[in-house]
Amino acid sequence: MPKKETAIGIDIGGTNTIFGFTDREGNILAEECLKTAQYGTAEIFVSALYKKIQAAGEKIKEGVEIKGYGIGAPAGNINKGTIEHAAGLPWKGIVPFARIFHKYTNLPVIITNDANAAAVGEMVYGGAKGMKNFVVITLGTGLGSGFVVDGKLVYGHLGFAGEIGHTAIKPGLSGRVCGCGKKGCLETYVSATGLKRTLLKIMADSIEPSELRKLSFDKIDSKIICNAAKKGDPLATRAFKQTGQILGFKLADVVAHTNPEAIFLFGGLALAKDLILDPARESMEENLLGIYKGKVKLLESLLNTRNAAVLGASSLIWSNEKV
Amino acid sequence: MPKKETAIGIDIGGTNTIFGFTDREGNILAEECLKTAQYGTAEIFVSALYKKIQAAGEKIKEGVEIKGYGIGAPAGNINKGTIEHAAGLPWKGIVPFARIFHKYTNLPVIITNDANAAAVGEMVYGGAKGMKNFVVITLGTGLGSGFVVDGKLVYGHLGFAGEIGHTAIKPGLSGRVCGCGKKGCLETYVSATGLKRTLLKIMADSIEPSELRKLSFDKIDSKIICNAAKKGDPLATRAFKQTGQILGFKLADVVAHTNPEAIFLFGGLALAKDLILDPARESMEENLLGIYKGKVKLLESLLNTRNAAVLGASSLIWSNEKV
């Protein structure tokens, strides 16, 4: 019997790195995890990661044939195969990640940022199957985005396309301080952290009672705000509404630039579903030019599960084969 | 001797339609004009236009072989070959322009909006030769844009990509009323008309003397403001500065979405050169995420002459051959 063809999807995060063996249909045959920060250099990390992948592969009964390694990482640059100045990772500067990986294998090693990986995942396994023009917005601690135009990910001149999280919501370098050094970036409003900042503002401005007033800033997270909103907490509900409105406002720009068929929301905040989708949709429609009105779908990602990042990363290998 | 290969470039405007015979190097062998509004229906217009093109071709001594007809028109839709609800044109509704044209010829007839035609022109004949990722912004009465990603024009799902003129400069549906029915659209600030509106505001808010105070709103145009600014008129200078600043602010979004190598400004307002380019560049840089800073060129179009629209339209035929 021929061995099962699999692509390895690797999702590198600041705390955990998760990898999985994925088949062409998006089934994950095995998945394991290692602690990213435990390895002082990228060389030591890759050595441990590669060893762990091979060991995991041997445990899969039917036997697997690995077709390549797809990697989603913050600040991953597909053109150069590097991870460049990733704020959340232990390795500083420009890390030639694909080159290090190629010490161990001659198979394809494709690295890109996590939002781009999510977009390819949506195209290969998710709601964007068959779509040629769409955008995926990842809502986690920050806000990432991946643009697909004419069936291909947009990388742009330097490989850095799709950073709508750091577009400003108004002119004049005003608004909330962002980790990137600028002010008023979309991700300071629309992300798990942005939602919390908005909640705090609403809490300060209003006098309505709320269970959330008992919790410190550090204790509150988007899940807590989501649960409160579902129970009818007025502050939490308003925080979601404002977050969705600002998202919709900037999504109208995304539509005017690239006219996608659909925009998918992916990640923790998107799990709040209509709490964020409804106000975002309404605000996007309000801000759209007539020719686009009612013609762009705003949807939750079909991959919005815990395996999505691994699926997205592995899909880089399958989508690469077709080119 | 073989006949000279030419593409016909047709620039359809509300007042005039200009067409030209263009060779592969961007030389215009002949150029003529007809009055768009003189023809009550698109059928009558195309009949007259086609006849005039053939007559003009016969006058070219060396003889020409026409390879196709490229058309730039407001609201031109390349997917459907239509002109759809063009505000400035005499024919209402959805006009199946390419289909009408094909009654007379079996050669390729390619129609797109004027900003997209300008972008292809920049790629084929202008400053974007050899570039794979760039954006052209056309600054006329309104503001149009054409995005090129990976060597190809971005049309998007419905063929309407590249409408940054109708993205808003701040949230909340506030700001200047736009002809499109929305408020606060970029083109109400950044365009010949936008510049004039800004000048009027500055005139109202300040007490400085200016020659421009002698002129009515209807009399003032961007050329007059440009000449005044060059002579040091403080109001005109400030109007250009503010216009450039708002443009730069929104260009930072363009960069974050598609990471172009360069952005070209085309059209009347771009003839003001540094008056608009300098503040736009400064404001764009201020608003860019670190990874893009100093890496995106903001330039005047190399085609910024009177023939540019015809060149852009004709380039649709040459660029189509390569596909």
Principal-axes geometry of chain A comes out as globular
The top level CATH class name of the largest domain in chain A: Alpha Beta
User: What is the typical, i.e. mean, pLDDT of chain A?
Assistant: 93
| Secondary-structure arrangement, i.e. CATH architecture of the largest domain in chain A | 2-Layer Sandwich
Which fold name is given in CATH as the topology of the largest domain in chain A?
A: Nucleotidyltransferase, domain 5
Percent of sequence in beta strands of chain A: 15-25%
- How many DSSP E strands of chain A? 13
Residue share in helices of chain A? 25-40%
**Alpha-beta content class of chain A:** alpha/beta
Tell me the major beta sheet of chain A: 5 strands, mixed
Radius of gyration of chain A: 20 Å
Q: Residue ranges of chain A: pLDDT <50 for 5 or more in a row?
A: none
Count of helical segments of chain A? 8
- What count of domains describes the coordinates of chain A? 2
Please list the strands of the largest sheet of chain A in the order they lie side by side: 3-2-1-4-8
Helix/strand order of chain A, N-terminal first: EEEHEEEEHEHEEEHHHEHEH
- Give the name of the CATH superfamily of the largest domain in chain A: ATPase, nucleotide binding domain
**Which chains have the largest interface?**
A-B, 49 and 49 residues
Describe the oligomeric state of these chains in a short phrase.
Answer: homodimer
Termini gap of chain A: 28 Å
